[in-house]
Please model this.
Amino acid sequence: MATGHIKKEMKMKFPENVFPEKGRTVMKKEEIAFNKPSGKNPFGKNSEPESKTPSPHEEEKPEESISPSIEKNLKKIRSLFSNDDTFMFRKFESAGQAPLRCAVCFLDGMCKDSDVSEFFVKPVIEKTFDEPLSEEKLKKEVFYGGDFQTETDFQKAVEGVLAGNSVFFIEGFSLILVADTKGYKTRAPEEPNNEKILNGSREGFCEDLMINLSLLRRRLKTTDLKIQYLTVGEKTNTKVAVCYLQGIADNNLVKGIIEKIQAIQIDGAVCTNYIEELISGNRLSPFKTAGSTERPDAAAAKMLEGKVTVFVDGTPMVMTAPYLYIENFISPDDYYLHYVYSSMMRVLRILCFLISICLPGLFVALLTFHSQMLPTEFMLSLVGAREGVPFPLLVECLGLLGVFEILRETGVRVSSSVGQPISIVGALVLGEAAISAKYVSAPTVIIIAMACLSGLMLQKIKGAILINRLLVLFASAVLGLYGFLFAVAGIFFHLLSLKSFGIQYIGYEESKSPRSPRDIFVRLPFWMQKKNSQS
Amino acid sequence: MKKITLLFLTVLLLFLLCGCYDYVDIEEKAMVAGFAVDLSENGYRVTAELVSSSGGSDSEIQSKIAYSEGKTLSECLRNMISESSKKLDFGHCKIIFISKTAAEQGIDPILDIIFHNDEIKVSIDLAVVRDNEAAAIFQTDPILSPIVSYEAQKTLESMSHYLSVSPQGFSYKALNHIASIGTELVLPMFAIRESEQRNSFYLNGCAYFKDDHLAGELTEAEGRYLQIIRGDFNKGRPTFTLHDIAEGGACCISPEITSFSGGSKPSPEDPYTIYVTGTVKLRMDELPQGISIETAESREKIEAEVQKEIEDSILTFTDKMLRQEKNDIFGFGRLIYHKDTALTKEVSTEEYMQKLTVKASFQVQIESSGISKKPLQD
Model:
C-alpha cells in the first residue's frame, strides 16, 4: 500500500491543529507517524508483521487512585459532570454499629433504576453490619446478585458512568463497583430499508453493539468467531468491535485493521463511515474500497469468505473489508433465489452500471461528432425532436442530470407522503412541460432517465456513478468518441490500480481473493462452488 | 497539491487546445438526404434534398430543395453551402440521382466526389433518371416517406430483396465494375409518372454503361435475367407464357421464385464457353383456368415450359448484349480473366465477346402451392 501517499493526503486534509474546534477530526503527529512508509505491506499475506509504532492509546496512562472517602470521590466526579443535569448520585447506608456507606452515580435515562435498587441498594439498606467488612465479604455477601466489576482507577468510574453503567463508591474502600445496569432504549432489529430483499432474513442490525454482535453470533455458532473490542474517539469513546473467523480470515489483514483503528485519533466516531474513510486508503478515488452492510446474514456470509467486519456502537452499518469491486453488483437476494435468475440479475446490474456511466456520453459523442454513425430513421426523429431547443446538447444533458439529482435528493430527504407528489410534479409535469416548451428534447430526456434509472439500481456506488458519468460526458463532449474511449479506459485503469486492504479491487487473483471464482459475474449453484474455508 | 494542480492544468489545456473544435449540434447541420446531378450550360447543376423539421413533440419531417450550379461538382456542392444557412451534412445522404445526359457524359466525376468526400458513405446508391432532368424526381410525391430520396432508396432495397429486377447501385460496386476488366456497370433506373392527381416515381428497368458512359437501357425482364446470370438473384415473381399446356391456347403464370441458386462459370475445357446454370424453385399461387399442379405429370409439363423459357431468354439476351451491343454486362470477361489471366491480355474485349458461346441449363421445380409451404405430393 502506498502509505507515503496517505501521509501526504492526511497532511493536506487534516493539518495539525488547524481545526481544533469540538467535533473536528484532528490528525496528530502520532497518526501521521503511523502512516509513514514502513517498507512492508501490513495487509500483504506474506509480509512480516509491521513493527508497531506506539500509539497514544496504547501508552499506559498514570492511574488515578480512588479515595476511601465517599465525599472526596463524589466531589471529584461531580466537578467532572458539572452543568450536566442528567448526572445523578444517591447516598445510602446500612444499619448497625459499623454501617456500610455507599454512593451510586449514574446518568439519568441511561440506567435501569430497578436493577440498581434491586441488586445494589436493597442488599445494603436491608442489612445490619456491626463490624467493618472485608472486600471479599462485600463481593460475596452483599452484592452477590448484581453484575459488576471492581476497579481501582478513578478514570474507570467516569467511563463507566458515560457508558450507562452505575458506579458505586463505598466508604473505606479504595475501589469502585462498576455495575452493568444499562437501561437505555434501543431500536429492535428491523429489515433495513437500503438492503431490502424478496426472500430471506428480515433482520437488520440496530444501533446497539451488543444486540448486533448477538445477531452475528446467532449465525456463526463457532469458537472460531473472534471479537476484539477497541475504543475510538477522544470525546465519544465509541466502542468498536473487530470480528473475524479465525482460520479463514488472513491474520495480517486482521492485525492491519486493528492497528489502523488503534491509530485513529479523532474527537468522535459516530458512524462506521468515519472509520472506513480513515483506514481504507484510496481517499481520492470515487470508488469505495471498504464495504458496509446492515444485514447480519450478509455480514456472516462475508466473514465466511475471510473478510473482517467492524461494528461501531451506535450505528447499524457494519464495515466489511476487504471489499471487491464486484461486490457492488451483488445483492443478498442472489443467494436466496434460484441461481439462474440470480446470475441474470447480476449481469443486468453490471450492464446497468455501464449504461448509467456511458449512455449520456455516448449519446453526446454520437450526436455532435459522429451523427453519420446513427441509423437514418433514428437520426430523423432526433432532428425533429432537437429542432427549436435553445441549448447545446451538453448543456441540456447537464441540466437534466442536475434536475434528476435534485428530484432524487428531495425524494430521499422528505417523508414518503411527500415523495410521491414530488415524483409526479418533477418527472411528469415538469418533464412534459419542458418538452412542450422546447427547453429540452424528448430523446435527451429518455437517455438521461435511462442512465439515472440504471444508476438507482446500484445504490452502493451511486457517488462513483455520478462522478464517472460526468467525466465520460465531458470527455465525450470535448473529443467525441475518442474522448469517450479515453474516459472509459481511464476509469478502467483507475479500477485496476485500486487495492482494498491489500487485495486487488478489480481483477481476480485466486491465491488472494476471498471470493470463489464461481461467484463473480454469475452465481453458480452452491454445489459447484468450493468450500469457503481455506483451512 | 502539485498533483491536483497538474491535473487541473491538463484538463484546462484539454478544453483550450483542442476542445470542441468540431462540436456541432445536429440541429445546426442541414442533413442532405440525397442529391441529383444534371448538366447545365456552365457544367453541372446539383439539386439537394435537405431534411427539415418543425421541432417539438409533434414535429413533422419535411424536405426542402436547394440547388447550385458550377463547372465542377465540387464547386456546385461548395456553392450550395452559401445558399443554405446551415452546414451541409452528407452523413445520411442515401442516394444520388443522375440524369441520362449526365450519365452519358460519364459518371467518373460523381464517383470521384463520393470517394474523396469524408462524409459521403461509399455504400451510397446511384440511380439514373429516365427522360426527365434528375432534379425532377424531387418534385414527385412519395407515398410512405416525406423524403423522396429515402423512399427511392427503400424502393431499391425492396426491389433487390423481393423482385431482383436490377442490381442495386451501390457506388463501391459501381467503381468495381468500371475499374475491372471484363465487366460493365448496370444501374437501376427511375422514371417519373405525371398525372393530374400526383407525380410519382417508379423503378423502370436498368441503365447499362460502357466504361463510365451510359450506353443503353434494359427492360425489367432483362434486368431479372441479368441478375440470374450474375448469380445475384434473390426472389422474384416473373411471368412465363405456357404455350402447350392450356386447353384454350397460350396462357401466362406468375409463380414466385422462392429460391434460386446458380450463376455463370466458364467451361473447364474451353474458356470461351460459359455455362449459365441454376436451380429454380417455384411456388404456384395463381393458376389460370385449365392449369393444374395436382399431379406430377402436370407439374412436370409446367416445369419443362418454364425451364425452356428461362434458357431461351438467357440465350437471346446474352446474344443481344454480346454480339449486337458488344457490351459484357454479365461479367463473362471477368470470369475468363480469373480462370486464365493471360488469355484476356492476348484477346481484345470485342474478340472474346464474339468468340463466346453461352450454354444455359436450368432445373425448375414446383415446390409448393400458395397456401402451403409443404412440398407437393400426388
Summary: Chain B is about 35% helix and 30% strand. Residues 1 and 177 of chain B are 64 Å apart (CA to CA). Chain B has two domains: 27-218, 230-378.
